[in-house]
């Protein structure tokens, strides 16, 4: 039976945290993972505006996947952009095109909010992720290098 793609609601916070933790393990940053279920609840559902937004794939009250994003309100195009922070599908649900459904829901969200683009990063070792994004028609932006300044 197909999953339901919907915006996350507060009661999802514990399952969202589990998916976020699984992603941290997959992407090998679990040692610095500082998110708790309470942080997910407060930052995503009780704060106004929230620190992040989330679209989920719901399989009869079990979250099969999540897509976490936030808005970049100011861009050179004088239109907002969406930054895709996390896309993760639980292992038993992979290969069922759920990632594509989540990405298309994000595209609709971007269009409804007059966004100029959707941006994200992907680890170069994540070959499945790279192929997935290419199949969607996304292109690698080689105009800019990604930098970070850890504090």
Write up this protein:
This protein has a single domain, classed as 3-Layer(aba) Sandwich (Aminopeptidase). The protein has helices at 13-26, 37-46, 98-112, 127-136; strands spanning 4-7, 53-59, 62-72, 81-89, 118-119. It is globular. It has a five-stranded mixed β-sheet. The chain has 151 residues and is an alpha+beta fold. It contains four helices and five strands; from the N terminus they run βααβββαβα.
Question: Helix amount, in percent?
Answer: 25-40%
Q: How many H/I helices? A: 4
CATH topology, which one? Aminopeptidase
Molecular shape: globular
Question: Which helices and strands, and how do they pair?
Answer:
Blueprint: E1 4-7, H1 13-26, H2 37-46, E2 53-59, E3 62-72, E4 81-89, H3 98-112, E5 118-119, H4 127-136
Parallel strand pairs: 4-5
Antiparallel strand pairs: 1-2, 2-3, 3-4
Short description:
The chain contains 4 helices and 5 strands. With 151 residues, the chain is α+β, with helices and mostly antiparallel strands.
Short key terms for the protein model shown above:
alpha+beta; globular; 4 helices; 32% helix; Aminopeptidase
